[in-house]
Specification:
By secondary structure, this protein is of the alpha/beta class. 58% of the residues lie in helices and 9% in strands. It has helices spanning 2-7, 11-19, 22-30, 36-68, 84-97, 106-139, 141-148, 158-170, 174-192, 197-212, 239-252, 267-280, 292-305, 323-339, 358-370, 388-394, 421-429; strands at residues 227-233, 257-261, 283-285, 310-314, 346-352, 374-378, 404-408, 416-418. Strands 3-2-4-1-5-6-7-8 form an eight-stranded mixed beta sheet, sandwiched between helices. The termini are far apart.
C-alpha cells in the first residue's frame, strides 16, 4: 500500500492535478493520511459541497454583481434586501412613465373636484331655496292673494290706497304699522312718479322689506362657548318641536348641541324632546320630578365639561297670566346665571303665527319677565296672515321690536329657516 501511493504521484500526473479545481486538490492532500474506505467518504462530501454554491449562492451572487458591480465572492451577496429593491423601485417608475407629468400633481387633482361639484351644490341649494319660498308663499297665500288682487286692472288713485289700508289691517298688521306703511308708500309713489298698479305693488314690497328689516338678525353661535339658549312660550306654541328643529339647523352649521328638558313634571314633554334628540343624534338631559332650575344649572356645567357649542333649555309652557309660573321662569334664568354669569346668552320666545294680535301681548309679558333676545314664529303654513310681524316692527302696543331669528312653515325637520325680510315681504304682498 505504501508503494502504491509512492508510485502514483508522477511528474505528468502532478501537473494535471495542479490544473484541476481547488476542491480536487484538497482531496489529493487528504488521501495519504487516511485509509481507502475513508477516502470514499470525503469524495462524497466534495461532491455535495460544490452542489450548494452551484445552485443558489451562485445565482444570487451573479444577480447582486450585475446590480452593484461587486464580485461573486463575498457575504453581501446573500442579503435579502438587495434583490427586491430594484423590483419595487421599477414598478412605480414604469407607471409614472405612462402618465403625463402634469397629471401627477396632486394639488391640481384636488382642486378640480370642487370645481366640478360647485355647480351641482349650487343647483341643489337653489332648488331648496325655491321650495322654501314656495312653502312660505303657500303659507301666506291668503294674505298674498288678498293684497295682490288689489293691483289687477286698477288705477293709481286714493281708492287704491284705501283698499290697501283695509287689506293690511285684516292681515293683522295693526293700525300703527298700517299707517306707517301707507305713509311711506305714498311718499315713494309721489317721489318716483309711479303711475301703474304693478309699480305700486313693487313699491309696497320694497317699503315692507325696509319696515321688517329691523327684525332681521343673524343667529350668532360662535361668539361664546357654550352658548346657553333658553326657550320659552305659551302652551301649544310649538316650543319642543322648534327646539328639535333648531338643533338640526345648528348641527347643519357644524355646532355641537346639548338639549335640556326643562319641563320636568310632564312626562310627554320629556319623551318628545328625547325623541328629537334621538332623531338629531344629540344628548338630552332630563330628570323626572326635579327642579327645572336645578336641571338647567347642571346642564350648563355638563355642556361646558363636554365641550358643547350650544346648550338649549326647553322650558315648560305657561300663560302670561299665570304669575306663579312666570316667577318660576324668572328663577330658572337666575339659576342659569349662577352657573355662568353671562348666561343665558339667548332667551327665545316661540309664538304661533296664527295668534294674530295676541302675539303682541305674549311678547310684552315674557319680555318683562325674562328679557327676550329673539323670536321663533311657527305655523305660518296654516291660516297665518303674517301681518303680525309688521306690528312688532312698528312697536305697536308698546312692544319692543324683538328680532325674529327663525320662522317655520311646515312639519318637516328642515322647515325652520332664518327670517329674511325681503322673502317674507314678497310672500305677504304676493
Amino acid at each position: 500500500m505504501f508503494r502504491f501511493f509512492k508510485k502514483k504521484p508522477t511528474q505528468s500526473e502532478s501537473s494535471v492535478e495542479d490544473q484541476l479545481p481547488t476542491p480536487a486538490s484538497h482531496e489529493s492532500e487528504h488521501i495519504p493520511d487516511q485509509s481507502l474506505e475513508k477516502v470514499i467518504v470525503p469524495e462524497t462530501e466534495t461532491e455535495a459541497t460544490p452542489a450548494v454554491p452551484a445552485q443558489t449562492p451562485f445565482r444570487r451572487s451573479a444577480f447582486a454583481s450585475a446590480l452593484s458591480g461587486v464580485g461573486s465572492t463575498g457575504v453581501t451577496v446573500i442579503t435579502p434586501v438587495e434583490p427586491p429593491q430594484p423590483i419595487v423601485a421599477f414598478e412605480p417608475t414604469a407607471q409614472a412613465e405612462s402618465i403625463d407629468p402634469v397629471e401627477q400633481n396632486a394639488p391640481q387633482v384636488v382642486n378640480e373636484q370642487p370645481e366640478q361639484l360647485e355647480p351641482e351644490l349650487s343647483e341643489q341649494n337653489q332648488e331648496k331655496k325655491a321650495s322654501w319660498l314656495a312653502r312660505l308663499k303657500g303659507g301666506l297665500a291668503k294674505t298674498g292673494q288678498s293684497i295682490g288682487s288689489l293691483f289687477v286692472g286698477v288705477r293709481v288713485d286714493e281708492a287704491l290706497f284705501e283698499e290697501l289700508e283695509t287689506a293690511l289691517i285684516m292681515a293683522d298688521s295693526g293700525v300703527e304699522a298700517t299707517e306707517q306703511l301707507l305713509t311711506t308708500l305714498r311718499m315713494r309713489v309721489k317721489r318716483d312718479r309711479i303711475e301703474d298698479a304693478e309699480g305700486v305693488r313693487q313699491a309696497l314690497r320694497e317699503v315692507l322689506t325696509e319696515h321688517l328689516q329691523v327684525l332681521e338678525k343673524p343667529f350668532d353661535v360662535g361668539r361664546v362657548k357654550p352658548l346657553v339658549v333658553m326657550i320659552t312660550g305659551v302652551n301649544g306654541a310649538g316650543k319642543t318641536t322648534s327646539t328639535g328643529k333648531l338643533a338640526f339647523a345648528l348641527q347643519h352649521e357644524g355646532a355641537r348641541v346639548l338639549l335640556v328638558a326643562g319641563d320636568t313634571f310632564r312626562a310627554a314633554a320629556r319623551q318628545q324632546l328625547i325623541e328629537w334628540g334621538a332623531r338629531n343624534k344629540v344628548d338630552v338631559i332630563a330628570q323626572e320630578g326635579a327642579d327645572p332650575a336645578a336641571v338647567a344649572f347642571d346642564a350648563v356645567h355638563a355642556g361646558r365639561a363636554r365641550g358643547m357649542d350650544v346648550v338649549m333649555v326647553d322650558t315648560a309652557g305657561r300663560l302670561p297670566t299665570q304669575l306663579h309660573l312666570m316667577d318660576e321662569l324668572k328663577k330658572i334664568r337666575r339659576v342659569i346665571a349662577k352657573a355662568d354669569p353671562t348666561a343665558p346668552h339667548e332667551v327665545l320666545l316661540v309664538v304661533d303665527g296664527n295668534s294674530g294680535q295676541n302675539v303682541l301681548a305674549q311678547i310684552r309679558a315674557f319680555d318683562a319677565a325674562v328679557g327676550l333676545t329673539g323670536l321663533i314664529v311657527t305655523k305660518l303654513d296654516g291660516t297665518a296672515k303674517g301681518g303680525t310681524l309688521a306690528a312688532v316692527a312698528a312697536g305697536s302696543q308698546g312692544v319692543r321690536p324683538v328680532p325674529v331669528y327663525w320662522i317655520g312653515v311646515g312639519e318637516k325637520i328642515e322647515d325652520l329657516q332664518p327670517f329674511v325680510a325681503a322673502e317674507f315681504a314678497a310672500a305677504v304682498v304676493g
